Amino acid sequence: MNLREKCRLFEFTERGDERGQLVVVEALKDIPFEIKRIFYIYGANEDTVRGRHANKKSDFVFINLAGSCKIRLYDGTEEYVVTLDRPNVGLYVPKLVWKDMYDFSSDAVLLTLSDEYYDPTEYIRGGE
């Protein structure tokens, strides 16, 4: 399986009317795992690079709720860059895939869903 197949994009259904849009993301229905942790990045600028690691156990779904950012993915063989700029699109990234989040717009809010609780021992950083 190549990196684009492993790190796939999900388009979530928008349910909206004159009052605005509503997007629902349900564990094990819209994404392939139970959600144990939610975190988000905001206030980053275009020069900021976040991530710079892989995880031994955690899978993730990234959703850019506002603005835009890029995510560079690398599995040791292939590199794949995704631009997230729609709040109804999520990027699934499985364990053992290196990720760098960068090129944030000034209004970017990057939401992350994970199937694991935070554990600093499962991070793979440069040089490990």
Short synopsis of the structure:
3% of the residues lie in helices and 48% in strands. The protein has one helix and twelve strands, in the order αββββββββββββ.
Tell me about this structure.
The protein is mainly beta. The chain has a single domain (3-125), classed as Jelly Rolls (Sandwich), CATH 2.60.120. Helices cover 3% and strands 48% of the residues. The mean pLDDT is 96.
Features of the shown structure:
single chain; 128 residues; mainly beta; Jelly Rolls; five-stranded antiparallel beta sheet; 1 helix; 12 strands; 48% strand
Helix content: under 10%
H/E series, N to C?
HEEEEEEEEEEEE
Query: Number of helical segments?
Result: 1
The strands making up the biggest β-sheet line up spatially as 1-9-6-11-4
Quote the distance from N terminus to C terminus. Answer: 25 Å
Topology:
Layout: H1 3-6, E1 9-11, E2 14-17, E3 20-23, E4 37-42, E5 49-55, E6 60-66, E7 69-74, E8 79-84, E9 89-93, E10 98-102, E11 109-114, E12 123-125
Antiparallel strand pairs: 1-9, 2-3, 4-11, 5-10, 5-12, 6-9, 6-11, 7-8, 7-10
